[in-house]
Amino acid sequence: MATKKSAKEVIFDNSNWKTRKPRYDVAEANFGRVLAVRMAPGDDLYGTTLKIVKEKGVKAGVIISVAASLQRATLRNVWQFPNPWPIKDECRIFTPIEGPLELLQMSGNITQTENGEPYLHAHATISMGRPEATCFGGHLVEGCIIFSTCEMVIAEIDNLAFMRIMDKQTKVGEVYGIPTGGMSNAEIKKEVAQRKERPSAHGKK
Fold this sequence. Notes:
Number of strands: 8
Mean pLDDT: 90
Helix content: 10-25%
Structural class: mainly beta
CATH superfamily of the domain at 29-158: Hypothetical protein, similar to alpha- acetolactate decarboxylase, domain 2
Oligomer: single chain
Radius of gyration: 20 Å
Number of helices: 3
CATH architecture of the domain at 29-158: 2-Layer Sandwich
Order of helices and strands: HEHEEEEEEEH
Low-confidence stretches: none
Distance between the termini: 32 Å
Strand content: over 45%
């Protein structure tokens, strides 16, 4: 009787990991404007960051640094492999944490969806002072509320279409960078269409 494969074995073929050709995307660009941000008590870290980049017209960017204190936080993590893709909420756990808390580190990027909406992807590390300096980490979602302050620096990326394009393997919008120096909107759309037609990791369209 055949042994039933686990979810991990179904979605990943790691038998050839030593000889497998890496599949990655690289795009070169330069930093443009730099935004120095201070958020006030009661602001939602995730929602306020999105509001700022939308108001300032940042379509491609990276979060350089963040230091903040929080009243409370919610972090998201994956607790089991999906079977099959994509990763859905039943494979995730949302952890609410009551403060006071310190935001030790936050990293991430600002991209665009295929509909042109700003998209924030960020991970955070948070510490709790009681009973000892316990740390929590995960994917940033709404519900991280500023306690006294949040100091953030965001760098805009020039001449780059930094987009979330549907990936054939993971079945969600994954990040792709398309250098746009001298390209028309029609040429950028054509490049996006070509990226979407790339084969999956298993060579299937």
